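Our platform keeps sequence and structure together, in a single record for each protein. Such a record has a labelled line for the sequence and another for the backbone structure tokens. This encoding replaces a full spatial description with a residue-level series of whole-number codes. Below, we set out a record of this kind in full and without editing:
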Amino acid sequence: MAKKAMGNSPYDESVFDYGNLTDDHKEAVKKCLELAKKAGVHEQFIEIIKVKFNLSTLPTYDMANSETWKSMKSDDNLSCSSGGHTQANGMNYPYVSVMADIRDIDKWLAGEITNLSNMKSSAEENAK
């Protein structure tokens, strides 16, 4: 159940194994969360505990909504992948990796700058 975290001296401590949660664990956490709500514990902390103990899941940001991701994935000279995530504002945001020759990244970035400049010029032109 709990393992000893080693190599973190003098702060070695027992670490809970969240990978082997039982229904008893979950029920105990639910009872604790009820008490926490009654005591006025901040809702964000309660949500963190729910997610940690698999009582709730956070939605994951849809990468198809990211213009940057779409642009990088469409460039055959860039190798892009995602894996893992960070949690913020009630959402899982994927980590991304881009691997390429620096010259290819420079070309991609220069193209993005040109596209943005063209968009700005078009918007200014339409505002006249």
Q: What stands out?
A: The first strand starts at residue 2 and ends at 4.
